[in-house]
Amino acid sequence: MTQAAPNLDDLIANPDGPLAQFLCFSVYSTGLAFNRLYKPLLDRLGLTYLQYITLIALSRRDDQTVKELGEALFLESNTLTPLLKRLEASDLLTRRRDTADERVVRLALTAQGREVLRKARCVPEEVLEATGMAVEELIALNDQLKALRGHLQAGAR
């Protein structure tokens, strides 16, 4: 038997607070908690969280296009371009025009970018410890969140 979705009045009247039953708020506030956790870990590397995940995404495969990277990170070009320029200015990646199509920009990590990632190897372990959850629980939660994201994206089309 499926439970009826609560209406807005029921959510507002919740004794745990008006936002306690909003899944979107739980996801949002968890994201903020992750940001607070990551900040000191990445500050010591001179990176923001977006810079960190960008370097990780590039470490999987050099010579990605800006478009491919944007799709992988769910970022629009107006957010991605300034981020990439800052990483290039810090000598962590290179940007170059594709020889076959000059409209396409290709990206690659520099040696310094790879060194920063080498120094960041302890970050996932520190984050795992801070969650207080088992790896298996986090994998299951991550799978659920990815499935939810897929459903939401499909519904937004």
Automatic annotation (TrEMBL):
The keyword Transcription applies. It holds the Pfam family Staph_reg_Sar_Rot. The keyword Cytoplasm applies. It comes from the Bacteria. Residues 1-150 form the HTH marR-type domain. PROSITE patterns: HTH_MARR_2. It is found in: Cytoplasm. Keywords: Cytoplasm, DNA-binding, Transcription, Transcription regulation. This is MarR family winged helix-turn-helix transcriptional regulator. It comes from Novosphingobium clariflavum.
